[in-house]
Amino acid sequence: MNEKDNFTVIWNETLSQIRSELDEQEFLTWFNLELQKADEKEFTIAVPSLFYLDQVKKRYQAYIEGKIEELIGKRVTINLVIGLKSDVSADVPEKPSKSSPAAEKQAPSGHKKEKHPQLRDDYTFKSYVIGENNSFAANAAQAIASNPGTAYNPFFIYGGVGLGKTHLMQAIGNYIHANTDNKVIYISAETFTNEFIATINDTQRAKTAFKNKYRFADILLIDDIHFLQKKDGTQEELFYTFNALYDANKQIVFTCDRPVSDLKDFNERLRSRVGRGLKVDLQPPNYETRCAILKRKAETSGVVIPDNVIDLISKNISTNIRDLESALNTLTAYAKLVGKPVTLEVAQQRLKDVFASPRQLNISIEIIQRVVAEKFRLSHNDLKGKKRNHSIVYPRQLAMYICREITDHTTTEIGQDFGGRDHTTVMYSCQKIEDIVRSDPAVDTTIQSLIRDIKDYSVKS
Ligand code: ADP
Ligand code: MG
239 and 162, same structural domain? Predict the structure, then answer.
């Protein structure tokens, strides 16, 4: 036996021992690995995609190295690389990048399929820019698109508004729709609820039609599932739909604005099913990714956006991708209407208010409290605290009102940051201030001047 064969024997034995230790499903999911080369110190092992690489590295690398050490009595390093020779991954969506544009292939039969009626055709993998904020989610989505209903079911994508959840979910749908004959259904949780409610007084036949519509999907994409909180009847319907699809190995994908564990007023049975598969989150993009996204969007807008403008927007807008897009749209609309090029000066002028908006300045409740407290010569603690004399109550109400006006915090969150008060107290305070403003417009001037101070303070801090 030559040396290569020796290593192959060791590798095969390693795999077979691992197989005997792991759950069969787990083994089949993760150990589609190929020995590419080996020497005394290092085994080079190929995996199907970047997503597998991340996962195998994290979950199994040390375990595999330990197994080999047990077998041969020596520690070797596993070097993971992408690309199997026996390429089972031929239909894995290519990793979108400038140099490899074609993530969306044609249908296998060669005919160009009609656009999917519920999916936006520009929400594809190809147009989805990958950065460190979303690479895990995007790779997982690609793995699912090429192998739906197998390893990661359901797939749960969560994150704040405008971070690309819907785009990624629809990219999965578009890819499967273009490349297979699977029936893809996309629906927002809100529409699902409305359709469900509409059937309540319907005939049995109409009810069955509604159920069948979803239970015959091969891929079911349900967007913004947090919308179902408190909607018991719809949750129950979804629970049955979920079971029917899951048992038939159909792929289900959810998006949500929060982690599964934060879904309130959610039926426990449904929650545990929703969270059973792979959960990935989307984070806000960093500066470099923001630039890359803007460049990609600018290319398709037909308006030349110089690099210094891309830099300006990326530095000033950090909230989410929807906000980036809307800033860019402001500039392209201007250029098209006025027929002038977009320069740095134009961008500064046009986007001045957007950049100075409280959201982009990241104004916190604490900053508001500090500025208001200072203005009324109170301590920060008094403003948040329990004292109820008028000289404190009024500024406190004013601060709560400003929080509600210029931040995205809910009244519950505001109440919490004001000494754990109830959200109804916050609502009452805001109402009080609105009444005062109505009877004494001068108070509004005070409020506007406070807001200016708060913004200045936020720029400095
Ligand atoms: P969400 O559903 O999380 O609120 P969306 O998917 O609607 O967010 O995304 C908001 C906008 O930002 C969409 O126009 C989408 O195309 C764009 N977008 C989000 N993430 C990316 C990305 N990584 N690359 C390119 N565009 C993106
Ligand atoms: Mg969305």
Answer: yes
Tokens linked to 1: 């036996």
Residue from 133, 286, 322 whose mutation best tests the ligand 1 pocket (most atoms within 8 A of CB)? 322
**CB-ligand 1 contact for 128 (6 Å cutoff):** yes
CATH code, domain carrying 324: 1.10.8.60
Domain end, chosen from 282, 314, 338, is at 282
d(CA 229, CA 200): 19
Query: What does the DSSP 8-state code read for residue 110?
Result: S
Highest mean pLDDT among 51-55, 176-180, 407-411: 176-180
**Is the per-residue pLDDT at 57 higher than 60?**
yes
Q: Indicate which CATH number applies to the domain containing 51.
A: 3.30.300.180
Between the CA of 157 and the centroid of ligand 2 the distance, in Å, is 10
Cα 388 to Cα 79: distance, rounded to the nearest angstrom = 66
Ligand 2 (ion): residues with CB under 5 Å are 165-166
> Closest ligand 1 atom, CA of 289?
23
Assigned domain for 128 exists? no
- Is the pLDDT at 109 greater than 70? The verdict is no
The number of the ligand 1 atom at minimal distance from the alpha carbon of 282 is 3
Cβ–ligand 1 contact at 162 (below 6 Å): yes
Structural domain count, the chain: 4
Contact 168, 96 (CB under 8 A): no
Of the three residues 282, 317, 343, the one that is the final residue of a domain is 282
**Ligand 2 center to residue 281 CA distance, Å?**
13
Do 254 and 295 sit in the same domain of this protein? no
Residues 139 and 225 both lie in one domain: yes
Task: Report the C-alpha gap between 384 and 174 in whole angstroms.
Answer: 50
The whole-number pLDDT of residue 97 equals: 37
Cβ–ligand 1 contact at 325 (below 6 Å): yes
Q: Is the CB of 163 under 6 A from ligand 1?
A: yes
State the pairing for strand pair 155-158/251-256. parallel
Q: Which domain holds residue 430?
A: 365-460
Is the Cβ atom of 385 under 6 angstroms away from ligand 1?
A: no
pLDDT top residue among 33 and 235: 235
Q: Do 202 and 236 share a structural domain?
A: yes
Direct distance between the N- and C-terminal alpha carbons of the chain, in angstroms, rounded to an integer: 69
Cα–Cα–Cα angle for 16, 155, 168, rounded to 5 degrees: 120
Segment 343-395, tens digit of pLDDT: 999 999 999 988 888 777 878 999 999 999 999 999 999 999 999 999 999 99
Residue with CA nearest ligand 1 atom 11: 322
d(CA 77, CA 205): 62
- Give the closest residue (by CA) to ligand 1 atom 23: 129
